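As a representative case, the lines below give one protein's residues and fold tokens.
***
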Amino acid sequence: MSLLHLAIILPFVVAIIIPIIYKWTKKIHTGWLVLPVPIILFIYFLSFIPKTMNGSTVETFQWIPRYGINFTVVVDGLSLLFALLITGIGSLVVFYSIYYLGKNKERLNNFYAFLMIFMTAMLGVVLSDNLIVLYLFWELTSISSFLLIGYWYHRERSRYGARKSMMITVFGGLMMLGGFIMLHIMTDSFSIREILAASEAISQNALFIPAMILILLGAFTKSAQVPFHIWLPDAMEAPTPVSAYLHSATMVKAGIYVVARFTPLFALSPIWFWTIAIVGTTTLLWGSINATKKNDLKAILAYSTISQLGLIMTLLGIGAASLHFDNLSDDIYVLAIVAAVFHLFNHATFKGSLFMMVGIIDHETGTRDIRRLGGLCASCPLPQPLPLLVHLRWPDCLLLTVF
């Protein structure tokens, strides 16, 4: 097993250790023990940037070779971007949660164990080359997000949001599994690289369109596209660090990742372009309109997230337009994909920051209702934000400065 495999598994191992050592570490916030994990992984994945510029890195661990199921890890430009997002934003979220969650009031061993399991699941999704392994990590993201959303299980809304998100995303995952099996039937391989290489040969197969639709169902449910967007606003009942990590930077981007990964294969069909473009545009408009109707800051950010996910999905769809319209330049494909990937990184950065700032406001004022937050600056006699920061603890000031 290579270092790449160990990097994926490391957070899961830490998740197992946390409950064991928790009772001996009550004098220190558990977050300080967990924080080095995403930082180390972020630095490790940064080292792949020069290597990735010269080609992909592939490492294989033989798991069930008889059935073609091996734990093959591929680091290319797309997977590396997601790995850096998962570990980089994860580092900031863990640091933020140290001050957001009280050491004596919360079940910190559970929270950080669930968070580390989720990190492993997301790294597995974006780095796996084998379809079955990808699916296993995909469902692990649903399970771990269910645990994180329902972390405050004594609240009815938290339990409801957790159940709702799990039912919708697991349904989509099962549909996606059906699409993966169809791809295997057409190519006799579970390797994504081998399937993409055989795109021309299988594009005329009778199972090509059904496999595309099933995989899109999985991607749309995870990335909260209309009509599957209904789970995301209810998932905002989770603690703010969870919202910042899962619902702006990572989990909802898993569906975007799958669409981007399989675009070279399914973009050969015009159905791919029309489906993604129509669903993405509808999601963009629906999310943006509903965001203006909300009074809760987290609800505003939730619908804004849905809107931005629709925008990224639309850009990926437009990227395939040049393949089916003769009057469009091939440069449209490149520009649209570059814009989608750039905004994916851009959105993860600013939306995660906004969620954390909302958490600070909620933590210090006791409300997220914008109707009650009007005139907040009036408590600051100077035009600069400095007087507001005086009333916040130094970690809050640091986070507001950084973001």
Notes: Residues 3-402 form one domain. Residues 381-403 have pLDDT under 50 and may be disordered.
